[in-house]
Amino acid sequence: MERIISTPTVKTPADRFTGDVYLNLIEAPTEPARLAIGLARFTPGARTNWHSHANGQTLYITDGIGLVGTRDGYVLRVSAGETVKCPAGEEHWHGATDNTLMAHIATVVGDGKGDGTTWLEPVTDEQFAQALAAATS
Q1: CA–CA separation, 93 vs 123, rounded Å?
Q2: What is the pLDDT of residues 15-43, one digit of tens each?
Q3: 57, 74, 97 from 114: Cα distances, Å
Q4: Are 115 and 51 spatial neighbours (Cβ–Cβ below 8 Å)?
Q5: How far is 104 from 130, CA to CA, in rounded Å?
Q6: pLDDT in tens, 40-63
Q7: What's the chain look like in SS3?
Q8: CATH class of 9-134
Q9: CA nearest 42: which of 6, 69, 67?
Q10: What is the pLDDT at residue 56?
């Protein structure tokens, strides 16, 4: 058993996120295990770039209200206590709404070469505005 008192909070890189997003890594994938877990906190309007995961991703919303969108234009409005599963290979993004914070615990199972995430281009302001209008509960 190992007790970890705390992990440092880091600001996420601008080449993968729009706006201010802060991350606490809970578990890094180390062989033979391949599970990565992180707590991400998004300020209003902040979001990930488009991305996909080789083995999918599960998001557990811990605070606030956020959005999760897919390439086909489907957008979920999510809030604390909800879980979203993104299937393997699905290009998606997630973040806060324009006027609320959002935090989630993200879990991914790596592909043996890292966490299995493929990072793509930013979600544009126009795409974000469309997502706000289209979001379903």
Answers
A1: 8
A2: 999 999 999 999 887 777 789 999 999 99
A3: 14, 28, 29
A4: no
A5: 22
A6: 999 999 999 999 999 999 999 999
A7: CCCCCCCCEEECCCCCEECCEEEEEEECCCCCCCEEEEEEEECCCCEECCEEECCCEEEEEEEEEEEEEECCCCEEEEECCCEEEECCCCCEEEEECCCCCEEEEEEEECCCCCCCEEECCCCCHHHHHHHHHHCEC
A8: mainly beta
A9: 67
A10: 96
Question: 85-101 burial, b for 16+ CB within 10 Å, e for fewer?
Answer: ebeeeeebbbbbbeeee
Residue 48: both structure tokens together: 């990930």
pTM of this structure: 0.93
What is the domain partition of the chain in residue ranges? 9-134
Q: 64-93 pLDDT, tens per residue?
A: 999 999 999 999 999 999 999 999 999 999
| Mean of pLDDT over the chain | 94
Q: How many angstroms separate the first and last alpha carbons of the chain?
A: 40
